[in-house]
Amino acid sequence: MLGVGLIGTGFMGKCHALAWNSVRAVFGDVPAVQLVHLGETNTELAVRRANEFGFQKASGDWRAVIDDPQVDVVSIATPNQFHPEMAIAALKAGKHVWCEKPMAPTFSDAEAMLAAAKQSGKVAALGYNYIQGPAIRHIRKLLAEKIIGDINHLRIEMDEDFMADPNALFNWKHEATSGYGALDDFAVHPLSLLFTLFGRVSRVMCDMSKPYATRKTANGTDRAVETYDSASVLMRMENGVAGTLQANRSAWGRKGRIALQIFGSKGSILFDQERANEFQLYVTADRATEQGYRTILTAPHHEPYGQFIPAPGHGLGFNDLKIIECRELIKRINGQPAHLIEFADGLEIERTVHAMARSYQEQRWVDVR
Amino acid sequence: MLGVGLIGTGFMGKCHALAWNSVRAVFGDVPAVQLVHLGETNTELAVRRANEFGFQKASGDWRAVIDDPQVDVVSIATPNQFHPEMAIAALKAGKHVWCEKPMAPTFSDAEAMLAAAKQSGKVAALGYNYIQGPAIRHIRKLLAEKIIGDINHLRIEMDEDFMADPNALFNWKHEATSGYGALDDFAVHPLSLLFTLFGRVSRVMCDMSKPYATRKTANGTDRAVETYDSASVLMRMENGVAGTLQANRSAWGRKGRIALQIFGSKGSILFDQERANEFQLYVTADRATEQGYRTILTAPHHEPYGQFIPAPGHGLGFNDLKIIECRELIKRINGQPAHLIEFADGLEIERTVHAMARSYQEQRWVDVR
Amino acid sequence: MLGVGLIGTGFMGKCHALAWNSVRAVFGDVPAVQLVHLGETNTELAVRRANEFGFQKASGDWRAVIDDPQVDVVSIATPNQFHPEMAIAALKAGKHVWCEKPMAPTFSDAEAMLAAAKQSGKVAALGYNYIQGPAIRHIRKLLAEKIIGDINHLRIEMDEDFMADPNALFNWKHEATSGYGALDDFAVHPLSLLFTLFGRVSRVMCDMSKPYATRKTANGTDRAVETYDSASVLMRMENGVAGTLQANRSAWGRKGRIALQIFGSKGSILFDQERANEFQLYVTADRATEQGYRTILTAPHHEPYGQFIPAPGHGLGFNDLKIIECRELIKRINGQPAHLIEFADGLEIERTVHAMARSYQEQRWVDVR
Amino acid sequence: MLGVGLIGTGFMGKCHALAWNSVRAVFGDVPAVQLVHLGETNTELAVRRANEFGFQKASGDWRAVIDDPQVDVVSIATPNQFHPEMAIAALKAGKHVWCEKPMAPTFSDAEAMLAAAKQSGKVAALGYNYIQGPAIRHIRKLLAEKIIGDINHLRIEMDEDFMADPNALFNWKHEATSGYGALDDFAVHPLSLLFTLFGRVSRVMCDMSKPYATRKTANGTDRAVETYDSASVLMRMENGVAGTLQANRSAWGRKGRIALQIFGSKGSILFDQERANEFQLYVTADRATEQGYRTILTAPHHEPYGQFIPAPGHGLGFNDLKIIECRELIKRINGQPAHLIEFADGLEIERTVHAMARSYQEQRWVDVR
Ligand SMILES: NC(=O)C1=CN([C@@H]2O[C@H](COP(=O)(O)OP(=O)(O)OC[C@H]3O[C@@H](n4cnc5c(N)ncnc54)[C@H](O)[C@@H]3O)[C@@H](O)[C@H]2O)C=CC1
Ligand SMILES: NC(=O)C1=CN([C@@H]2O[C@H](COP(=O)(O)OP(=O)(O)OC[C@H]3O[C@@H](n4cnc5c(N)ncnc54)[C@H](O)[C@@H]3O)[C@@H](O)[C@H]2O)C=CC1
Ligand SMILES: NC(=O)C1=CN([C@@H]2O[C@H](COP(=O)(O)OP(=O)(O)OC[C@H]3O[C@@H](n4cnc5c(N)ncnc54)[C@H](O)[C@@H]3O)[C@@H](O)[C@H]2O)C=CC1
Ligand SMILES: NC(=O)C1=CN([C@@H]2O[C@H](COP(=O)(O)OP(=O)(O)OC[C@H]3O[C@@H](n4cnc5c(N)ncnc54)[C@H](O)[C@@H]3O)[C@@H](O)[C@H]2O)C=CC1
């Protein structure tokens, strides 16, 4: 029996709640889960959501969740600035932590979180769900068995259009205090994929740009935009492979694109999160006249698709990624090997992002470490 | 509070369990759901699954589920031949019924089921989940507002390849006692889509074929295959529109294809369940030089996608369809209008399938009614 | 040296002219071609086009072309109703004939054409260019080597939208005298593909429909449309394979679609003329976890692509099909084996179309022969 | 009447020959073309090709072509190192020049070519055919009318796999004397597109890499590869727009990919040369619930598609691009405005490529001018 606390019930909070609700029914091989305590900004909201999500208790103060002795693990699904305080408090209270990505707005806070995790001896994992999809997991397996030989070039792009409207008013996301822009909003996700598929990044050279220099404020005046919606990065992996990473949160038409191109000595692999239930494989082992990208639909033989659906080509959804992540977390809590980004790797992802930003500021290649 | 019983825990049984588990967390607007009683073929299995799925009680006899006074609604997710007996018993016991499609192997059994439903005054719904997807629901809305004008032609295809291997041994699906073949396995799903999008079918002309005339039995002898893996149907809708319906369960390469082509006087719409998170729209309202099929990714504004995910293009999965269906069922139980195929419509779907089969046997056009 | 005559300089006439102009430069292995004589409806137009296309002589009377002793082969690219008279006259004059498809509006005229061809001993070929594409030719080769095993099901669709506008005025294509509609406009092309890939059709069951029952005439009155823009056909091939053929010339959004689905015991093949420079292959010989449709781009190893371009994936165009056809014609004239639809096969294509029409009229399955 | 000389009859030489052969038949509005003189490395080959391509004279010495008084314009389709000498000689001889891209291996040679062109007063154009496709031309029109608003971000990739095989032996393309690698082989083409669509590049930051550090020579020893098959470039356009350009000639699976992503304030446009007969447009002018990328098939209303084919969606081929380019050249020779990359722009393209190489060598941002 695992007692669960949840803080935050927005996009990701609900996603965590759904995952906790379903993980045992989907996987069978995990212990029973008890939804113990839900925290929100006020009691009324907390009670309403606890009711909907099936939590037993509800508090308007997140500390009550962390202090609850029945809670073994805490889902932290609040805005980034709250992660350090909440995660460190939870770890100190002896709870396992499942914190949404990224770790923290500042690198030193992220470092403090890792330190707290180490000290606690508890599991401290991050919500990098895109590494959990059956297609990505299978690609990882294929790379390991060198189906496309030795990798020699990588490209990854993450694009959405939620900031693309030039007529949207100036908001906090346009202030420098919110971070760099596309880099911290998006680059961390592609990095989580790169880390699990290929290892860490060693050097980066980054350019950033703003689609709209100014935006209207609510009172009709123009205000200079301080963050960069677009970032493009040349990079070298620690294993020597060259590649590029691009992120754009003002890319009209893109909704949830994370497009990966992997080139090797014997073939190549393509993937796009907007069509996450398929990936493309090109192998030179095929006869020359019939070589072409295979569009492979995910199926029960692509783990852990089969735990959700016994028939191929029927498709998982975005929320299912969280269920898979949840099961990995539980395995990890139980001392089993797990496919998960924990605070140590999470810190390296953030180190890489900060190196990218520094590279842009200094207009030069920067070593990540 | 709604007390739930579940019979059968295979592909669909698990899918129902997941739906019951999540429906309130996803939608918020439904009453609390209590997983009361689970039935399986034996107690051991029933207990194990009840444990995993979160049911309070478990029985090796499905009648115990139906007789449980705490159970308000029964999910029937057993093989087709059990549907009539179980559904009728449940209705007689005063339970609402959520029965997997199709209703029954024989038409008379299906009629009896409808009769029982009418007599009981309870809700009796069928598991036609493909009508629930946000893309299909939005297409329905677009057709209603005549975005592509008056419909004049339809094509629908449903293809998978689970029977495509000629070396697979003869099994019960190859016996005539199991039904017609592709017609009852598959045709009902496209018909559920046609019914909700366009109305009923009036006339059909059907051809059927067998990819493999014989199959090996376990003891190595050849045995004649009695069912038809492929069916192709010319048809007229009650509203006069002409179209075709094709189904093939031996179509190598197809995994979960339900491909719809709808042509109207002002445009056309395409959909394929293998890429269920998008659909294609062509409208002549666009300037001629830029007319083309728009690939529209599902998003929060395509109901009820937003209840699952607040961001566009992230994608629902197959199991999410059941959650949507479950909420419609609950709405219906609560006396609200619902988007659901109930026994009355289900019977018409089956009437249509039987008319198709008769058309093939008699090699002529057959009026459905 | 081959002397060429051309009658008609519209869509296809120009296409023939381009083919004659380029065939030797592309293939090298054909004799020199002399553009001798061009015929059009009047001298002025004939002279202008002869000038543009590079013909030496021009006449306002097509008989002059046929009677020209320097002319060895005549391209007939006029509307269908002129084919019989022109082709028969040309054959009688001892010329080879390259006549656009279909042979003739009536079956008896087509029969007369074949008789004239036989009597003349000259080559009499038809303009079924879609069988010439490198993708289709390669598919033919793959089928012959049974890469997808034994074929068991076929689907072919040909759709365009040039008749889709309900506000377009009534014209001659809406009169019954112009033929059946989609059947003769379109069905012949898919049939040419079926014939070369699989052989002839033995039985057909056809439905036809009209998207718009009436159309406005120039003077504003409504007039009943007499032809059928859409035709759907159940069929059996002579080799026993079952399939369907559909044609629709009012299918908004479709521009040059000829979509082929071929299912066999070991895989399947897809092709769509709108993306003619690629085709899709699924084979069960691939490892199960990586089975998927390969999108194969045409390349020099797909004959005769390499005669046009030495680099893969660069793409041929529609007009290049005619150049290939032209070279096949020349090979045939030179007594070599050629991949070409000649009058004998052309007549069978038309026999099949007429059988389809009869099937619709009589609402029953019809044997083609 | 325009007298044509052609030097070189390989990939591009044949392509030029086909273009000269067809340009008048396709466009009608150009003067008669006379294929006068063909030059090759030896007389035998020259005669053979002249015969095939329809040239009147043939020489084993290219100077004879240039000196031929009947020749007005010379197509230069020889390897890059010959371009300067041949082009300058032709211009000095008072001929117009149509030289394949790029201008020359060294920048100073390219400068000399431009100087010669200026001095001659003759037309000196380059073979940047990808700017000629109807899709690209229409995109240019759409950008000009600001259908996607103000451009704010660009990405362009050009990838093929002809150098991807690690087992292919060391050849001259691996020697530094052949150039930089992907940069000069490929980057010029994307630059030609960027120049015509958006203007010139102002600053670049380039990374290059080698998929295979060594290759086997014919005698079995390993030799270090000196060129870079992959190049990735951060860049700023003169108009301030940020973007990236990537080129990879060892990208398994890519055959003729030139993929363009253009993001603007009101939408975006995608194009890929591997499917050159279509492009994708996303516009925010569409109703929100139906926004999506439109796949627009080229058609007669996309100039000059209609000169080739009067029906939409039938598709042009790679060789047709050269016919369009040829007609632009002729228009230019006739003093009309033309859509063509001439030596002045060609030099800027090469200046940009050299700046990219310098940026890599010096590991810093470099101003192009
Ligand atoms: N893994 C993924 O794919 C995604 C991760 N995220 C991450 O999830 C986190 C949350 O983002 P969203 O869910 O999109 O935000 P949201 O704004 O939808 O939800 C935030 C929730 O936190 C609650 N909250 C705020 N302050 C609180 C406090 N002091 N105590 C208790 N509750 C508090 C809010 O009331 C709200 O329910 C962020 O770190 C974000 O980066 C977000 C979207 C996708
Ligand atoms: N809506 C959809 O998309 C789909 C619907 N179905 C329908 O769902 C139904 C079940 O099919 P699957 O789940 O694929 O079958 P399955 O074989 O995976 O599961 C059947 C379950 O019923 C149980 N069962 C059998 N007899 C029983 C009895 N007498 N008492 C209690 N439990 C019993 C079995 O032990 C098993 O757990 C069928 O009617 C099928 O047509 C199946 C797949 C997809
Ligand atoms: N193979 C293919 O893919 C296609 C074949 N076709 C076939 O090509 C034939 C011609 O069709 P289109 O070129 O589209 O028609 P079109 O209307 O574009 O051209 C017909 C030409 O024939 C000329 N013509 C008419 N009567 C004549 C006469 N008595 N003497 C001399 N010239 C005469 C017209 O002036 C015109 O130039 C038809 O049989 C059609 O079915 C058409 C389009 C595509
Ligand atoms: N625009 C485009 O898309 C493309 C442009 N090119 C360009 O075209 C040019 C030629 O390349 P390819 O045709 O691929 O090469 P290729 O090797 O196929 O043909 C070169 C031809 O030049 C001839 N040649 C060589 N030296 C000669 C001399 N001294 N005198 C007369 N003839 C001579 C050769 O015999 C051969 O026929 C290059 O500059 C290349 O960059 C090449 C491919 C595509």
TrEMBL record, chains A, B, C, D:
InterPro entries: Gfo/Idh/MocA-like_OxRdtase_N, Gfo/Idh/MocA_oxidrdct_glycsds, GFO_IDH_MocA-like_dom, NAD(P)-bd_dom_sf. One of its GO terms (molecular function) is nucleotide binding. Keywords: Oxidoreductase. It holds the Pfam family GFO_IDH_MocA_C3. Gene3D superfamilies: Dihydrodipicolinate Reductase, domain 2, NAD(P)-binding Rossmann-like Domain. The keyword Acetylation does not apply. PANTHER family: BCDNA.GH03377 (PTHR43818:SF11). Residues 136-269 form the GFO/IDH/MocA-like oxidoreductase domain. The keyword Oxidoreductase applies. It comes from the Bacteria. It comes from Phyllobacterium trifolii. This is Putative dehydrogenase. SUPFAM superfamilies: Glyceraldehyde-3-phosphate dehydrogenase-like, C-terminal domain (SSF55347), NAD(P)-binding Rossmann-fold domains (SSF51735). Residues 3-128 form the Gfo/Idh/MocA-like oxidoreductase N-terminal domain.
